[in-house]
């Protein structure tokens, strides 16, 4: 039962939120927050 990671907008937001919970120190690779990319 493998579903595409981005079946819709809500699924994409859920996936990004999950990445933020797993890796709070690093921004998501798809849409990094501007405030964190400035620090790099």
What profile does the largest beta sheet have? none
Mean pLDDT: 65
Instruction: Give me the strand/helix succession.
Output: HH
How many distinct helices?
2
- Structurally, the number of domains stands at 1
Percent of residues in helices comes to: 40-55%
Can you tell me the residue ranges where pLDDT is under 50 for at least 5 consecutive residues? none
User: Between the first and last Cα atoms, what is the distance in angstroms?
Assistant: 38 Å
Work out the strand percent. under 5%
What structural class results from the helix and strand content?
mainly alpha
Structural features:
single chain; 2 helices; 40 residues; 0% strand; mainly alpha
Set down the secondary structure blueprint.
Elements: H1 9-22, H2 34-39
Q: Could you characterize the architecture of this molecule?
A:
It is a single chain. The protein is mostly helical and 40 residues long. It has one domain (9-39). The chain has helices spanning 9-22, 34-39.
Quick summary of this structure?
With about 40 residues, this protein is mostly helical. The protein has helices spanning about 10-20, 35-40.
């Amino acid at each position: 039962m493998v579903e595409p990671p981005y079946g819709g907008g809500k699924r994409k937001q859920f996936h990004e939120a999950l990445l933020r919970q797993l890796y709070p120190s690093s921004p998501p690779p798809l849409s990094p927050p501007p405030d964190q990319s400035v620090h790099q």
